[in-house]
Amino acid sequence: MESITLDSTDIALLNQLQRDASLNNQDLAERVHTSPPTCLRRVKRLRDAGLIEREIAILNTEKMAAAIGHGLTAIVEITLDRQDAQALDAFEVRIGSDSAVQQCYRVSPGPDFVLVVHTAHMPDYLALAQRLFNADANVRNVKAYFNVKRSKFGAELPLP
Predict the structure, then answer these.
(1) Domains and CATH numbers, the chain
(2) What global pTM score does this model have?
């Protein structure tokens, strides 16, 4: 993996984009005190280097639940019987292909994985659990925590 050197303008750009990636180039350039062409060139360089992985819209779960029906978020701990590289990779691939799994972390110590999953309601969660966990002979233990209130949510990395 190639290393990239970041200066204060790059850091300022990344900070601004973490907070609001919908800014147009003109507004972004003004906020980081650079010209629009320089801003555009630097953001392209940061994207090309892979520092900006992707840009997404973060939906408000409470408002979405009111608009389309009830929503259920769960944090799920998974422990596998076998933890060899092949078993861990196979579980990650299977979990990664399910759209209800929003985040997947391989962790240590404790469980092997921590997942954040979102389903419409408890019957959908039960179907997900059957599909992803109960049907997998290598899953030894599943422990789920159900969200009653989201107090904080963010995706910003702390930058200098």
Answers:
(1) 8-48 (1.10.10.10), 61-146 (3.30.70.920)
(2) 0.82
